[in-house]
Design a protein that fits this description.
By secondary structure, the protein is mainly alpha-helical. The protein contains 17 helices and eight strands. The strands form four sheets. The protein has a two-stranded antiparallel sheet with strand order 1-2. Strands 3-6 form a two-stranded antiparallel ribbon.
Length: about 500
C-alpha cells in the first residue's frame, strides 16, 4: 500500500487530524506572516509548505523541471529524445550546451527560489515560537535548514552566482547576488546546523518516512563539499560517511526492488520525495502531488503487455519518449550485473513508436508502470513513483572515493575495498581492486538515470567526454568551462536594477 499517510505530509505525526494532503496546502497564519508569535501549528504549516517543493520536481510553473533528467541531459548517458529537436527545445539546447538567457530553465529557478522563501518562513516562525518544546523546535529548525540547503544547492549547481536572502524581502523584492563561493559558505552553514547536535535522527521512524534525517544532511554535505572540491572538509565528510555506516540504520537490499512501490523508504533509502497519484493539472502551475517523470521518459505508444527484453517484465506503460539511453551504456555493465535490467528498459522494434534520437533503450527506474497512476484526470502528470534522492549506496561509494581518490584516512576499520565489494556483491558481481577508475565506473553504473553522472564528471575534471560529434543522433556539442553554469534567465535580470542588478554568468 502506498505509504503517503506516513510520508512527507506527516499528518498524524505532526498532530493534524485532517486528511494528509491538508498538511501541504494549509496556509500560514496572518500573525505569522506579519512576524508575530508563531504557534506550533503555524510552524508546521510553514514546514509543510517547504516540503511541498519536493513534489514539484517534474512539472510546475508550466515547465518540465525534473532534476534527475535535466542533470543527465548534460551527461554522456542519455539523449534528449521526444518528438524532435524542437519538442521541449530548451531541453535540447541544454543537452547541447547551447542555452541562452531567453531559453534556460526558468521554471527550475522559480521552483527552488520558492523553496528558499518557504524555508526562510519556517526558520522565522521558529524564532518567534511560543509554547513549543525545545526538542521539537530544534528538529523543525534543522529540517528547514536542511531543506533550504537542498533547494539552494540546486540553484548553486545550475547557476552558481545567484541572489540569496534569509529574510522577507521588502519591495521591490530584490536580493544581492552572491558568488558561487559565497553561496557555498551559506550551504555549509545550513547543513552543519542540520547535522550538529543530533537535532535529527539518523533514520526516521517508519511513521516519519519522508522527513529529513541526519544521514540525509550528511549526504547533502558530501555532495556540496565534493562538488566544491573543498579539500579542507574531506576528512569531515569521510567521518560522516563512517558514522552513517557504523549506525547500522541502513543497508543494501535487492537492487531491482528499490524502484517499485514496495521498495519505497526501504532499508537502503535515506531520503525520498513522496509522490501521490493526484492533484496536478495542466492549467494549475503550483499544485498537486504526482510526478510527470515516468510519462516523460517512457517509450511513446508502447503496446500493452510488451515485454522488456532485459528484465522480462511486462509491467510498463507508454509515455512521451524523452531521455533515451545511449547505446554504449549497455557495454558499461559486466555480464550478470543485476543493476542493468533495473536501470535500462529495451523493447522490441515495432512495440512502440520510435521518436527523435531513438536508441531502443529507456530509463527504467522511474518508468511508467501499470497501476501506478489512478488519477481521475491528467494522468501523465500524476504518477506515484517516488524520487529517490539519497541512497545508502552513495555512502559507500563516497567513502571509497574519499579514501582512494582523495587520499583520506578513515578513523575506523572502514576500507575502500570493503565498500566497493559491498556494492558489487549486491549487484551479483565479484571483487575488483578499489582503484580510482573502478570506483568511478561503479558510481556510473550504480546511479544511472538518477542525475549524478554530469556533476561527477565536472567535479572530477573528466569533462573531455562531453565534447562529441554524433550526427546519427543529432548531437554536436563542445564543452567549455563556461558551460558549468547555465545562463541566468533574462526575465530575472530584467526585474533587477541598481545595486541589485543581476550580472549574467560568463560565456552568455
Amino acid at each position: 500500500m502506498k505509504k503517503f499517510i506516513n510520508a512527507i505530509i506527516l499528518a498524524v505525526l505532526l498532530g493534524f487530524t485532517s486528511c494528509s494532503e491538508d498538511f501541504l496546502t494549509v496556509e500560514p497564519t496572518d500573525s505569522q506572516e506579519a512576524g508575530g508569535a508563531a504557534t506550533e501549528g503555524a510552524i508546521l504549516s510553514n514546514l509543510g509548505a517547504a516540503y511541498q517543493i519536493l513534489l514539484f520536481d517534474s512539472y510546475a510553473d508550466y515547465s518540465y523541471n525534473s532534476v534527475p533528467l535535466m542533470s543527465d541531459l548534460r551527461s554522456d548517458d542519455i539523449y534528449k529524445g521526444g518528438g524532435d529537436a524542437g519538442d521541449q527545445r530548451m531541453l535540447y539546447l541544454l543537452s547541447q550546451f547551447n542555452l541562452n538567457a531567453n531559453e534556460t530553465a526558468a521554471g527550475l529557478w522559480n521552483i527552488y527560489y520558492s523553496g528558499l522563501s518557504r524555508c526562510n518562513n519556517v526558520i522565522i516562525a521558529c524564532e518567534n515560537a511560543v509554547d513549543v518544546d525545545e526538542a521539537s523546535l530544534n528538529q523543525y529548525k534543522a529540517e528547514a535548514h536542511f531543506l533550504r540547503a537542498y533547494y539552494v544547492h540546486w540553484l548553486w549547481k545550475f547557476w552558481g552566482n545567484i541572489p540569496y536572502f534569509e529574510e522577507d524581502l521588502p519591495a521591490p523584492y530584490m536580493a544581492p547576488q552572491y558568488t558561487a563561493d559565497q553561496i557555498y559558505n551559506e550551504l555549509i552553514e545550513d547543513v552543519d546546523f542540520a547535522i550538529d547536535g543530533d537535532k535529527l535522527p539518523m533514520r526516521p521512524e517508519a511513521t516519519d518516512d519522508g522527513r529529513a534525517s541526519k544521514a540525509a544532511a550528511m549526504l547533502l554535505k558530501a555532495r556540496i563539499v565534493l562538488y566544491q572540491k573543498d579539500q579542507t572538509r574531506y576528512a569531515e565528510v569521510l567521518s560522516d560517511m563512517e558514522e552513517i555506516y557504523a549506525s547500522g540504520a541502513y543497508y543494501l537490499t535487492d537492487y531491482a526492488s528499490i524502484w517499485d512501490r514496495e521498495g519505497e523508504f526501504g532499508p537502503g533509502s535515506i531520503f525520498e520525495a513522496n509522490q501521490l497519484a493526484e492533484g496536478k493539472d495542466w492549467g494549475a502551475a503550483w499544485q498537486g502531488y504526482g510526478t510527470n517523470l515516468p510519462a516523460f521518459i517512457s517509450p511513446n505508444g508502447l503496446k500493452e503487455d510488451t515485454e522488456d527484453l532485459l528484465s522480462e517484465k511486462t509491467e510498463y506503460k507508454g509515455g512521451w519518449g524523452f531521455g533515451p539511453v545511449r547505446t554504449e551504456v549497455l557495454s558499461l555493465f559486466e555480464a550478470g550485473d543485476e543493476r542493468l535490467p533495473a536501470s535500462v528498459n529495451q523493447f522490441e522494434e515495432g512495440t512502440y513508436t520510435a521518436r527523435f534520437q531513438n536508441t531502443g533503450l529507456f530509463m527504467a527506474k522511474y518508468s511508467a508502470r501499470v497501476d501506478y497512476n489512478d488519477a481521475p484526470y491528467t494522468e501523465d502528470l500524476n504518477y506515484e513513483n517516488n524520487v529517490r534522492i539519497f541512497r545508502y549506496a552513495e555512502v559507500l561509494l563516497n567513502a571509497a572515493e574519499l579514501i582512494v581518490v582523495h587520499g583520506q584516512t578513515p578513523g575506523t576499520d572502514l576500507t575502500a575495498q570493503g565498500c566497493l565489494d559491498e556494492i558489487r556483491t549486491r549487484a551479483g558481481l565479484g571483487s575488483v581492486d578499489a582503484t580510482a577508475d573502478n570506483i568511478k565506473l561503479e558510481r556510473r553504473r550504480e546511479f544511472l538515470g538518477e542525475g549524478m553522472r554530469f556533476w561527477d564528471l565536472v567535479r572530477w575534471g573528466d569533462t573531455n567526454v562531453l565534447t562529441e560529434s554524433i550526427p546519427e543522433f543529432s548531437s554536436e556539442r563542445t564543452w567549455s568551462d563556461d558551460m558549468k553554469y547555465m545562463p541566468i534567465p533574462q526575465s530575472e535580470i530584467d526585474k533587477t536594477e541598481g545595486e541589485f542588478k543581476l550580472v549574467q554568468n560568463s560565456g552568455y
